[in-house]
Amino acid sequence: MEPEEIKKMWQENVLIEEKQQISDLKINEMLKNQGKSALAKLIKTANFYRFAIIPLGLLFCLLSHLFFVAGGYYPVYPLLFLLICILLEPLEIYLYRLLKGIDFSTMPVKEVSERILKYHHILRKCEMYGIVIGVIYLSIWYYLYYKLTFGSEIVWVIIIFMIVMCMAVGFFVPSAYKKLYYRHINQINESLRELKEFDESNDNEYE
Amino acid sequence: MEKKLLEADFLQMIQEYNRIIYKVTSFYADQNTTIDDLFQEVVLNLWKAFPNYRKESLVSTWIYRIALNTCVSYFRKNIRRPKCVAITPEIKVYAEDNEPITTLYACIDQLGKLERALILLWLEDRPHKEISDIMGITVTNVSTKINRIKEKIKQMSKT
């Protein structure tokens, strides 16, 4: 069917043109969820991490001695975690500002789409790398803990276990992550490709 | 008192323009995201922006912009949905036995989010200048993109 015919049919469609009433009660019910829109929730989460990430790192440092009960303590290890938290802080602030700056009523659709996609794209990548680094970090921690507890006899077993774990995680986690969240990541990638095409068309207009 | 007046105005606006919201949300609903979810999201975002609306543009343009922005930015993952108020039994956009429109929706499902926005505004016969303002692309780009999407839909409807 020709698009122009579809357009004519769309505009003639009687049911669309009829004024249909929704009860005011239902709209008031919806308004009770004020502040709970999808964007509002994302902003709240980003805001929370903006303030909480360094205190979480500090808390971890202060409580980490509880996990080295065998004696001996490697303060550099929890401090490394704190350093990662401090380095992530600018990213959290950037993500918060990216979302906070969105105004649906004045911004064009392309710009809103760009910002939201950027946010989700960065977040997914951080999640994935975070899981990989987290497992490696915990594996090393586990090694240090058992080395202190059981002495050198068990060290080689632990080292081999650690290497196998790190390699498995390094290969397994990204592909498992992609498979588990395939639809959602795929949706983000498709939208990014579409946005790139829009940008390229816009650039061609200006050349 | 002022809040009640604002609410009354807002309710009147929603009654006046609910079919716009419904048409936009029906374009973006899928298996994971229902029309009710999106409708509620749009209403919440409209309510948030309503006190600041100074009539710089037509009400319909303003509503299209917010509704499209809401739908284009809605990602369901990691969002705990608030209790959703169902409106679908009360509003129908088209008759289910209307084959060309059903075919259109089947084709729309295969388009990207920005393409859906463009084609919806074209179907609604909005001027290209208005589409360009809402979408944030040049007027020439609007024409080019719409022609490409029309061609795509034509090909899809043949298969």
| Radius of gyration based on Cα positions of chain A | 25 Å
Assembly of the depicted chains: heterodimer
Cα-atom Rg of chain B, whole angstroms?
Answer: 16 Å
How many strand segments of chain B?
Answer: 0
The top-level CATH class of the largest domain in chain B is Mainly Alpha
Overall morphology of chain B: globular
Count of structural domains of chain B: 2
Strand content of chain B: under 5%
Compute the number of helices of chain B: 7
Explain this structure.
- The complex is a heterodimer of chains A (207) and B (159).
- Chain A has 207 residues and is mainly alpha-helical.
- Chain A has a domain at 132-207.
- Helix content of chain A is 80%, strand content 0%.
- Chain A contains eight helices and no strands.
- Chain A has helices at 3-12, 14-17, 24-31, 38-63, 76-100, 109-150, 155-180, 182-206.
- The longest helix of chain A has 42 residues, at 109-150.
- Chain A is elongated.
- The model of chain A has no long low-confidence stretch (mean pLDDT 79).
- By secondary structure, chain B is mostly helical.
- Chain B folds into two domains: 1-93, Rna Polymerase Sigma Factor, Chain: A (Orthogonal Bundle), CATH 1.10.1740.10; 94-159, Arc Repressor Mutant, subunit A (Orthogonal Bundle).
- Helices cover 67% and strands 0% of the residues of chain B.
- Chain B has helices at 2-28, 35-49, 59-73, 99-108, 113-123, 128-135, 139-158.
- Chain B starts with a helix and ends with a helix.
- In chain B, 38% of the residues are buried.
- The model of chain B has no long low-confidence stretch (mean pLDDT 84).
- The interface between A and B is large, with 60 and 68 residues.
